[in-house]
Design brief:
about 190 residues, mainly alpha, 5 helices
């Protein structure tokens, strides 16, 4: 029995279908994993290297590696969050600066509009960005599913998979055992 090959069309279409479904259902979570992975792997590698070079036993070596992996993950998360906020500030600040002359003549107020736009963008863009990650991963999954169906230009498949993926990733699902997610429970407590 031989292993399947990527040149086998049926196996390749199966892979496209699997990756398309994974992106539609878990895309935004995989994005977070991809953001954190370099920090986790770098921390593990550095911890194992330090433990090995210091001649530590396996248990302290794993503790050092785990601690450095946590630090690496937090560092990657901080860098990604900062980059998203800076991008939002630049985009919204530029929009404010460019849009001001449409309503009034260009003066110093355009710079104030740019500053206000930057502040608003830094605050709002991360929420917009987190939703757009869901849209982008669902759209990529829809494109993969359409390619697997050998109908890459069928907008019904792409659009339908994208909309279903966005709905699945955005829905506040109940957790196994009947309990709701932490965010849903927190919102319900605020309403009471």
């Amino acid at each position: 029995m031989s292993l399947p090959s990527l040149s086998d069309p049926l196996f390749f279409r199966g892979l496209l279908t699997a990756f398309g479904l994974i992106l539609c259902v878990f895309g935004s979570h995989l994005y977070q994993l991809v953001v954190l992975a370099p920090g986790i792997l770098g921390g593990l590698w550095a911890g194992l290297l330090i433990g090995r070079s210091a001649g530590l036993d396996p248990t302290p070596t794993l503790a050092v590696a785990g601690g450095l992996a946590l630090v690496g993950a937090l560092l990657c998360h901080f860098v990604e969050t900062t980059a998203v906020r800076i991008t939002g500030a630049v985009v919204f600040g530029t929009i404010g600066w460019l849009a001001w002359p449409m309503f009034r003549e260009v003066r110093w107020e355009a710079m104030v509009a740019a500053g206000v736009g930057a502040i608003i963008g830094g605050a709002l863009f991360p929420r917009i960005y987190s939703f757009m990650v869901k849209v982008a991963t669902s759209a990529m999954g829809g494109l993969l599913l359409a390619e697997a169906a050998q109908r890459p230009q069928d907008l019904w498949i792409v659009g339908g998979a994208t909309i279903v993926g966005i709905l699945i990733q955005s829905a506040p699902w109940k957790m196994p055992g009947g309990s709701k997610g932490a965010k849903v429970e927190k919102k319900e407590k605020k309403k009471k």
